[in-house]
Amino acid sequence: MTSTTTMMSALPVEHRDRLMRIARQVSFPAGTRIFEEGGHADRFWIIRTGSVVLDMHVPGRRSPSIETLGHGELVGWSWLFPPYVWQLGAAAQSPVRAHEFDALAVRLMCEDDPALGAVVGQWVGRVLAHRLQSARTRLLDLYAPYGSGSGVRG
């Protein structure tokens, strides 16, 4: 991911510090399912150590890996947008230590502080755009006829 999608580079220090005050430390052993596509999105994580694989359900096939996330990256964006349902699945590829955030608490903070809400929304929007492009590219690599994904479209 580009540096503008990590929390450290995307959020001004004062907003980052406010969010970090409500973070809690969690860990996931390798192989742990962190969330399932279609489940209720009530929290999100920033990876401290380890790696997380994002995957997508494809009917009749094994769920392909869409992207691998590492240090400083956001795991989960669906918590910000109603109906708050995970659009991808996630699993710990290696042992993971992360900062966990309660989605409702962060949404309320963003409502109370429009400046915070704006920067969080822009940050998550950049992450979302990146993930959408990664999913598209990965699915074309796996399932499209040769050359199908080579054209540039808007």
Describe the structure.
- The structure is a single chain.
- The protein is α+β, with helices and mostly antiparallel strands and 154 residues long.
- It contains four helices and eight strands; from the N terminus they run H-H-E-E-E-E-E-E-E-E-H-H.
- Strands 1-8-3-6 form a four-stranded antiparallel sheet. Strands 2-7-4-5 form a four-stranded antiparallel sheet.
- Helix 3 crosses helix 4.
- The longest helix is centred in the C-terminal third of the chain and has 30 residues, at 114-143.
- The protein is globular.
- The mean pLDDT is 88.
- C-alpha-based Rg, rounded: 16 Å
Query: How can the largest sheet be summarized?
Result: 4 strands, antiparallel
| Low-pLDDT segments, ≥5 res | none
Strand order of the largest sheet: 1-8-3-6
Our estimate of the beta-strand percent is 15-25%
What best-fitting shape do the alpha-carbon axes yield?
globular
Count of extended strands: 8
The CA-CA distance between the termini, in Å, is: 21 Å
Number of helices: 4
Structural class: alpha+beta
Average per-residue pLDDT, rounded, comes to 88
Element string (H = helix, E = strand):
HHEEEEEEEEHH
Helix content: 25-40%
